[in-house]
Amino acid sequence: MPSPGAERGAERGAEPSAVPQGEREREREAERRRRRAQFLRDLAEARQLRDRVQPRRAKTARLRHAMRMRTFRW
Question: How many domains does the chain have?
């Protein structure tokens, strides 16, 4: 019966030759973009919920943001 360490070593040794480095990098980048898009969707949904639950706070936040935009210099 082989030791567990030997099995893990064999798997690690076979993995790099199975998929080219560039393809792995593209897959990793695509996965990062998918996770980021999901996070931004969840964040927008949470903000909308907060705005519905606390309308007064949402209104003051909008007014503050509008003031910042008016006083911002390009």
Answer: 1
Instruction: Tell me the CA distances in angstroms from 60 to 13, 35, 39, 56, 65, one per residue in order.
Output: 58, 31, 25, 6, 9
- Is 70 exceeded by the pLDDT of residue 2? no
**What tens digit of pLDDT does each residue of 18-74 get?**
778 888 999 999 999 999 999 999 999 999 998 899 989 889 989 999 999 998 876
Rounded-to-integer distance, Cα 29 and Cα 35, Å: 10
Is residue 25, in this structure, part of any structural domain at all?
A: yes
| Structural domain for 60, as ranges | 20-71
